[in-house]
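B., you asked whether I could sanity-check this one before it goes into the benchmark set. Here's the sequence:
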Amino acid sequence: MEFDVVIVGGGPAGLSAACALMNQAKEKKQEISVCVIEKGSEIGAHTLSGAILDPRALQELFPDYIERGAPLGVPVSKDEIYYFTGEESARQLPHSLIPAPMHNTGNTIISLGNFCRWLAQQAEAAGVDIFPGFAAKEIIYDEAGTVKGVLTGDMGIKSNGELKHSYTPGMELLAKYTLFAEGCRGHLGKQLIKQFQLDKDVDPQHYALGIKELWDIPQELHQPGLVIHGSGWPLNEGATGGSFLYHCENGQVSLGLITDLSYSNPYLSPFDEFQRLKHHPVFSHYLQHGKRVAYGARAIAKGGLNSLPKMHFPGGLLIGCDAGTLNFAKIKGTHTAMKTGMIAATAIVDALSQHEQPPADLTAFSALFAQSWVYDELHSARNFGPAMHRFGTLLGGAFNYLDQNWFKGKLPFTLHDRTPDYQRLKKASLCKQITYPKPDGILSFDKLSSVYLSNTNHEEDQPCHLVLRDPALPISLNLPIYAEPAQRYCPAGVYEITGEGDNKKLQINAQNCVHCKTCDIKDPCQNIDWTVPEGAGGPNYPNM
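And here's what the prediction gave me:
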């Protein structure tokens, strides 16, 4: 199938690009064909975020978004930020000491999944073809090495490679331009960065793991629009990150823990740290009489401008979190992802409007991006993450307060963090083991019951999508040196060590995978490649 534009990923970046392409082509009286493919069973099935929306990009994309019925949840009514000093202690920070980008006046608390479903409706109404349940497996290149589209994965292959009766071969989706909007650590985006050396001369990308739950809580405790952010406990001893609790609509709260994947202790388990967090009085006050209704996890690209690769290459663009455009100082990436999709649309429509052959490499995108407010935002926030990594939560927070509130992000220098997250792990022999309390089934839970709430499902008899480059390394190297951290950094119980003595092996429970990509990022040997399973596999988030 041939299109003018193929977009890989039905998140905010890809869908905003699709809408903007049709809007701008209509203004120029051009006819273009646009296709969006999404590996989830439906748009929004794999979409997970906090989420607080800065509406700036939405206002540009659809000035009449209110009339169109955009699902904007509830406006932020109050901000509270705490520094947790222990299991039961915390200090609430005055607003005057909070870095300016973290103030949420004018923002709204949304379900990003439902927001993307609405964006998809706008795109389809404008003439975009959207195909959920199709995973882009491979990149298609022409003889000159230009990207010409993608190949979707075959369906109906057994784990031993034999074909089932239901076998369906993948489709070639060809395009003049292909946009990659897979979200953080996209498996094709990772290949493109390497193929075209897009990250040459930039800092390595840095990541965090976000784990989130939705709870129904008693009406008398629900405060629509209340936003709580926290830092400090339970993360300590070199681990940084933050927590959140947002009072959404319909009597629900969204809460989670973001753990920077630069942590050094291989015994740390982000999932179990999250379970501890919920027992803190600031959170348990709201949760103790509530009911957990959803669970999910997703990696976050937080390197910002310092880690941003070149986003254009022959035949296409990387946009949104596939490139890493999240503004970590704001803890927000939806508005920046949307804007990069809109900029991509401008570059493509301009190129397709030329009478001669459109350029293979959309170099014009770089100039448009550099002139945009996204670039200005990321530039002003460029020191935020490196400061936290270098100086820790307290001193890093103090630096960021001065940088953002006094100097408005215009300090005459740039901090860098040039050590990849996976290289931060120390040997297990140098670290203290962490003993986590057993879940109580009221506030804290185990991994398997959590994965159940994510509605995760994969066709069991299919090739494993978690590929070990060297199957021997987990036992020969990771286990003796790092106590095999995959057992703990995975928030879904995918990896476990089984057997005794010389019979130990790494068992991969791929059926549990929630597609967070943490294993691809944090494995100290970089031995795990996350690839796409059959289309429609993975979590099925209702309104995350």
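One thing to flag: The chain is about 25% helix and 25% strand. Otherwise nothing jumped out at me.
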